[in-house]
C-alpha cells in the first residue's frame, strides 16, 4: 500500500490560544474537539468549505447538530467567510507551504521517471555478440533484457494511470488540484480501483456537487457496504432504484443515485 502523509502541523500549545480558551469556557472540550475536526476537514478539502452542503455532510459524519458547527464558525473569530464558503487563515498559510513542497516533490518524481526512460533507451543490449559469447550467456542477456523491458512497461503503465485520474478529476471539476488534494487522491488510489474513483467523480458532477467532501462521502458509503468492484456498485444502484415503493406520486422525478447516508434535499440553489 502506498504511504501517504496524512498529517498537518499542530502547535503543541494551541490549547492556550485565547480564542480556544473562550471556546473551552463556553462549549467545553466538545467544542475544542469540534474545532479540530473542522480544521482536519479544511485540510482535506484544500482549505475551503461551503456553508451549506459541506457542513451538512460534516454534521452527519460527526453526529452533531449543524447549528453547533455554525456557532463555532461564526461566534469565536476562528474562521473567515467568503461568499458561501469559510476558511481558516492559519490553515491557508500552512497549506501554501505544504502545496509548494508537494509540487516540488511531484516535479522531482517526474524528473526521475524521465531519467529512467532515457536510461532505459540507452541501455539496449546489442544483438550481435562476438564469437566468444556462449549460448548460456546469450540466453542470460535476453532474459535480463526482457525483465528490464517488463519493469519499464509496468512503471510507465502505473504512471499513466495515476496521471489519468488526476486529469480526470481536474477536467470534471473544472480546476487544478491543490497539493493536499493530490495527496488525498493518492490515499483514494491506495484503497479503491481507479474505475471506482472515476464513477464516484461522475456521480458528484451529475449531482452538481463538485467537492472532495461529497466524493469522500460516496466512497465511504461504498466501503461501508463492502463493495470491491464497480459491477457490485452499479448493481446496488440499480437495485436501489427498482426496489423503491412507488404506490403513488408516480409522476415525481426520481434521482438516479439515491444515498440515504446523505439525507440531501439536493435543492441545487448554489
Structure explained in plain terms:
The chain is 64% helix and 3% strand. With 270 residues, it is mainly α. The chain has a domain at 1-139. A 3-stranded antiparallel β-sheet has the order 1-3-2. The two termini are 38 Å apart.
Summarize the main sheet.
3 strands, antiparallel
Quaternary structure of the protein: single chain
Physical arrangement of strands within the biggest beta sheet: 1-3-2
Rg (C-alpha, Å): 25 Å
Mean pLDDT over all positions: 76
The share of residues in extended strands comes to under 5%
Helix content, binned percent? 55-70%
User: Total number of helical segments?
Assistant: 9
Q: Which class best fits the helix and strand makeup?
A: mainly alpha
Low-pLDDT stretches are: 124-131, 156-162, 245-270
Shape: globular
**Distance N terminus to C terminus?**
38 Å
Count all strands and give the number.
3
Order of helices and strands: HEHHEEHHHHHH
Task: List the main descriptive attributes of the protein structure presented here.
single chain; 270 residues; mainly alpha; three-stranded antiparallel sheet; disordered C terminus
Secondary structure topology:
Elements: H1 18-44, E1 48-50, H2 53-62, H3 66-75, E2 80-82, E3 85-87, H4 89-122, H5 135-173, H6 179-191, H7 194-206, H8 212-224, H9 230-242
Antiparallel strand pairs: 1-3, 2-3
Amino acid at each position: 500500500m502506498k504511504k501517504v502523509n496524512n498529517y498537518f502541523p499542530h502547535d503543541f500549545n494551541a490549547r492556550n490560544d485565547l480564542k480556544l480558551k473562550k471556546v473551552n469556557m463556553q462549549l467545553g472540550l466538545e467544542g475544542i474537539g469540534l474545532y479540530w475536526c473542522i480544521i482536519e476537514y479544511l485540510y482535506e478539502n484544500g482549505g475551503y468549505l461551503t456553508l451549506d452542503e459541506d457542513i451538512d455532510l460534516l454534521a452527519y459524519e460527526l453526529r452533531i447538530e449543524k447549528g453547533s458547527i455554525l456557532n463555532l464558525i461564526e461566534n469565536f473569530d476562528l474562521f473567515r467567510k467568503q461568499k458561501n464558503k469559510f476558511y481558516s487563515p492559519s490553515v491557508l498559510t500552512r497549506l501554501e507551504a505544504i502545496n509548494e513542497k508537494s509540487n516540488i516533490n511531484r516535479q522531482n518524481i517526474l524528473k526521475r521517471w524521465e531519467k529512467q526512460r532515457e536510461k532505459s533507451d540507452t541501455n539496449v543490449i546489442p544483438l550481435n555478440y562476438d564469437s566468444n559469447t556462449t549460448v548460456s550467456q546469450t540466453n542470460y542477456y535476453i532474459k535480463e533484457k526482457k525483465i528490464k523491458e517488463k519493469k519499464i512497461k509496468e512503471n510507465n503503465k502505473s504512471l499513466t494511470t495515476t496521471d489519468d485520474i488526476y486529469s480526470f478529476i481536474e477536467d470534471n471539476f473544472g480546476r487544478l488540484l491543490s497539493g493536499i488534494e493530490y495527496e488525498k487522491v493518492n490515499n483514494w488510489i491506495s484503497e479503491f480501483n481507479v474505475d471506482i474513483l472515476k464513477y464516484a467523480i461522475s456521480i458528484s458532477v451529475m449531482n452538481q456537487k463538485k467537492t472532495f467532501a461529497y466524493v469522500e462521502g460516496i466512497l465511504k458509503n461504498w466501503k461501508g457496504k463492502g463493495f470491491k468492484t464497480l459491477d457490485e456498485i452499479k448493481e446496488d444502484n440499480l437495485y436501489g432504484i427498482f426496489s423503491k415503493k412507488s404506490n403513488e406520486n408516480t409522476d415525481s422525478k426520481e434521482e438516479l443515485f439515491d444515498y440515504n447516508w446523505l439525507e440531501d434535499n439536493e435543492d441545487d440553489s448554489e
